[in-house]
Amino acid sequence: MKRKDDTIAILFVSILTIIVWVWAAGETKHTDNVLAWVQLLPPLGSTSTISPEETELTLMFSGSRREVDRAIAACTKGLRLTLSESDETLTLSDISARIATLDAIKDTGAIIDDAKSSDFPLAIHTLELVEAAVEIDLPNITVSGDVEVYPATVLLHIPKELRKTLPKAITARAVVSSIVLQQLQPGIQYEKIDAVIRLPKELEDEGITATPSRVSVDFKIQSSTKTKELAQVRILIAGPAEEYAAYAVTLPIKIIPNVTIEADAEIIAGIESGNVKVFAVLRLASSDMEQRIPTKRVTTFLAIMEDGTGH
What we know:
Number of strands: 18
Order of helices and strands: HEEEHEEHHEEEEEEHEHEHEEEHEHE
Mean pLDDT: 82
Distance between the termini: 127 Å
Largest sheet: 12 strands, mixed
Helix content: 25-40%
Structural class: alpha+beta
Number of domains: 3
Shape: elongated
Radius of gyration: 39 Å
């Protein structure tokens, strides 16, 4: 009976020793490194975005093995760090100090002794979310009625510093391909025609893009237009008939060379066939003649059709 009691006592002491040893091992000071992935977030309630959105760094933790193991487990799951609007550069000491205040790390009891990464110091770029109205661009087309764009606005992510230099209201152009437009006929209501979003040059040069990058357009073509370069255009003087008896008007030149005009495709076809003549009209008011003005800009260009009507 005594031998049995001794055996039980020895077994109890052995188990207790093992428990104490395991507990002591867990509480002995320990250090270890872990590669931590950190997601960088904009301030709460902000419509801005942060670039870069994530970073990696190696953290050295110290504490009991249990504390260090918990900290490593938290880092393995990924950490989320909220930045402020004023953050422009993050140093290793900055980010390690902020990580240490996160509940996921603070609750482990482990301490961050060191941090290493080749990414730091890290430049933070805050991108503001800006809504831009879309304007339709239909090259060489005259439309009848309203033009509808879907969606009517697009979203732009613009760096904070660049946004300060831009006007408050920003517009984007929806451009329909000239190849597509050439296939469309006047008098027909077209719907859901694809258009590409184009931004102002200062934004495109900075690599800014729009979301969405394409929109749909509904419109009805009244007429299509073309351009034509003319070697020369004669000048016509238009003024009150009663004034011609009292004044003589002379022109230093009677022909304007190298003129590019834009008109309905039908008129351009008439010009090319020689049936339509184009003149530069200089309108003179009675006051112009009375003041004997020395110069005046051409008022308009007039296309005289074969039947004598003007456009």
